[in-house]
Amino acid sequence: MPRRIAIVEDEIAIRQNFEDALRRQGYQVSGYGDRQSALAAFSRRLPDLVIIDVGLGDDVEGGFELCRELRSMSRVLPIMFLTARDSDPDVISGLRLGADDYLTKDISLPHLMARIVVLFRRVEMLSGEQTNSTWLERDALRLSAERMEVQWNGQVIPLTTQPPLGTQDPLDLYQWLEDYETKTGGSAQHRYRPGRPGAVPV
After folding, report:
1. Would you state the pLDDT for residue 123?
2. Which CATH superfamily does the domain covering 4-127 fall into?
């Protein structure tokens, strides 16, 4: 399955140029012209990489704010700034907010593609996604007991409270997810059946 990359860039011509270049490299690409439309899409499903411009139309700091919001949604989502703003304060701000890379728009396409490949490789190594045993998947639900992370429809479920995990049994995470959905008004489509050895969600 091709990697999914999202580009958040307010200038249509620039955004389309990068979209076309990435698609030629085999990536699945989505483009957004402002922070609000990007967040609406990301709330449904996170991509594998987000490329952001700092200034988004009248929202001169919109890219920084989007980076902050994305990092609160996922600790591991790769985020790259691609912008004309190259001052040291801007670069430092972007990296401090959680971006993995900060590039300027005068970068050549081969250089950009190389940085994207390296970023994906680094994320895979750090997250352990190269082994199939890391994630347990059921439809829209992904669980990692090793990383203590829960994803639902591509979105990280914030573990703001300590889940009742006496062990690292992934099934305990299903129980906690059901409780989370109940508290937040969600529909618990995956039910945990206690008391059954090897119980699975149905």
Report:
1. 78
2. Response regulator (3.40.50.2300)
Residue 176 CB partners (closer than 8 Å, separation 6+): 150, 163, 164, 165
Helices in 162-201 by DSSP H: which ranges?
A: 170-184
Record the tokens describing residue 8, joined without a space: 């958040």
Contacts 24+ apart (CB under 8 A), 180-185: none
The owner of tokens 């352990």 is: 128
Torsion of CA 66, 48, 28, 68, to 10 degrees: 0
Percent of the chain's residues with pLDDT above 90: 54
**Residue extents of the structural domains in the chain:** 4-127, 136-184
Instruction: Please name the amino acid found at residue 83.
Output: T
Q: Is 131 left (phi over 0), alpha (psi -120 to 50) or beta?
A: beta
Q: Which residue has the higher pLDDT, 168 or 181?
A: 181
Q: What is the pTM of this model?
A: 0.63
pLDDT in tens, 60-95: 999 999 999 999 999 889 999 999 999 999 999 999
Pick from 119, 165, 126: nearest CA to 143: 165
Mean pLDDT for the stretch of residues 148-167:
64
By C-alpha distance, which of 98, 86, 70 is closest to 8? 70
